[in-house]
Amino acid sequence: MKRVPQYRTRVLFFAWGDSIHARRRIGIFCEDDSFEVGVVSTFRYGFENASNYYLSGVLQADEKASRLLRLMTRCCFALPGSLLYLAMRFFGGASLAECSNFVRDIFLIRRYINDFRPDVVFLQTLMYPCFLSYFWLNKIPMIVTFWNGDVTWWAKWTGIERALKRKIVQHGARRAAAITVNSRAALNACLGYGATEEKVRLIRYPGVNLQMFKPHLNRAEVREQLGLPSESRIVFCPRGLGGYLNSDIIIEAAAQVIKRFPDTQFLFMVRDDVREVWDFHLKQARELGVVSNILGVGNVPWENMPLYYQAADVMVSISSNDSLPNCMLEAMACGVPVIMGDIPQISEWVTDGKNGYSTPPRDPFELASRIVRVFADQNGVVDEIVQHNIGLIHREVDSRIVAVAVKELVHGIANGTRV
């Protein structure tokens, strides 16, 4: 029988959307008996061993909740609400529905904070709705995990968040009792927004689960299990499609690689919400004459991801904006060489030709040359890269070690310990 501590630290998380990062970051607290966990979100996570609180987007599916929310909207969108709507329209083109949800969620958050009575509020980003907690946090200490997009390139919602993002970040940097970041670039950005050095922690949690993500001795066996060609060279592209992920550049590079290595297969993760982008890429590949070398796999549970890394010869992620991508860390842990976009946050981890390869994010010819270098390796450089990175991951981002660090931080803030 587990021994439950006499007093458990009550931590209320705010999470954005359907995020594997939020699932893992919050999950490590739900599994620990020294914490009592609440989660406020715009997505129905349904965390076990936690009090789950949902905002407008989720509650509208419930008829009773919808009646309550409609009543709240009529009350809120009197004169002050109308002014808010006009302001949001002016600043960012937010729709009436978005403005309505904004106001509803502010009052729902107040109700949830009063209900849960947290010792600490922990924001998992400053994406909507996390920053709405600012309205009600007076004496409750706040911890923020800044996503790199919050502080270096401003991940945005719509409406008022887009117009006021800088102020939202500045307030979070100054108001927070503690801040966690996962790159030195983000750490320096937080200092620039007014955070003090003693409150910013470089804690790269949740880290990598090394019991799951590890090399496999028989790549052909893994490929057979996944239904992938056993003799082909496989380039794995796990990040998704479109926008700053530069998947169009990967397709262009594929045409160059296939001229040298015709059996190469490029394997992309294709979620349901990017089907239109995938169709565009298939058209692009068809025009380049390489559509038969482009493979897509649908929504893959995170628990099955190690198999895809273990099946690959190289992993490619050339995003223009990034923080510390889990795909890079997980590929390294699985013994797969990585090719990444050459941006500051990645250069903290990857030195071109030493422990991986980096390339300008929008240069298909440079990307193709890096892939060819991996495939044409004659001097055992790739093996040296793989062994170096396995050791790096074990030293720096073992999930068991970083979980302890972030939990100690939360307990300390809750108990009034200086960060």
TrEMBL record:
The chain crosses the membrane at residues 120-137. SUPFAM superfamilies: UDP-Glycosyltransferase/glycogen phosphorylase. It comes from the Bacteria. Pfam families: Glyco_trans_1_4 (PF13692), Glyco_transf_4 (PF13439). The keyword Transmembrane applies. It comes from Candidatus Propionivibrio dominans. Residues 95-210 form the Glycosyltransferase subfamily 4-like N-terminal domain. Keywords: Membrane, Transmembrane, Transmembrane helix. GO terms for molecular function: glycosyltransferase activity. This is Glycosyltransferase family 4 protein.
